[in-house]
Amino acid sequence: MNVNIEKLPEYTLIKVLDSKLDTTIAPELKSELVVIAGNGEKNLVLDLSNCQYCDSSGLSAILVANRLSKNAEGIFVLTGLTEMVEQLVKLSQLDTVLNIATTPEDVQSFFQNS
């Protein structure tokens, strides 16, 4: 799977490199997230700036990341939403549940008080 994982001081950045977050990618992404959380990482940032398409299985993977962070009393931030993916997130009303950052600076702001 095309995912870049980078451990930063305040959080772990998971960047999906594929253009689609769908049934071919989502199960592997979920597995990666479980491994990362199992390693004690509680603050996760999922960067979807390369994703032009996301389906329900992709949304499920996003929710897994959110739940893993919350269960570990950490912070989950979704960033890099393209127009299509952002529309899906809003349509499914996940924008009311998730922390969404539009820029890298916005991502940092979520962790300044943690």
Which features characterize this protein?
single chain; 114 residues; alpha/beta; Transcription Regulator spoIIAA; five-stranded mixed sheet; two-stranded parallel sheet; 7 strands; 40% helix
- Would you identify the CATH H-level superfamily? STAS domain
Q: Tell me the domain tally.
A: 1
Helix content: 40-55%
- Given the C-alpha coordinates, what overall shape results? globular
CATH top level?
A: Alpha Beta
What is the average of the pLDDT values?
A: 94
Major beta sheet summary: 5 strands, mixed
Helix and strand composition category: alpha/beta
Q: Give the beta-strand count.
A: 7
- Any guess at the CATH architecture? 2-Layer Sandwich
Percentage of residues in DSSP E strands = 15-25%
Question: Can you characterise this structure?
Answer:
The chain is 40% helix and 22% strand. The strands form two sheets. It has a five-stranded mixed sheet. The mean pLDDT is 94. With 114 residues, the protein is of the alpha/beta class. It contains four helices and seven strands; from the N terminus they run E-E-E-H-E-E-H-E-H-E-H. Strand 6, helix 3 and strand 7 (99-101) form a beta-alpha-beta unit. It has a single domain (3-111), classed as 2-Layer Sandwich (Transcription Regulator spoIIAA), CATH 3.30.750. The protein starts with a strand and ends with a helix.
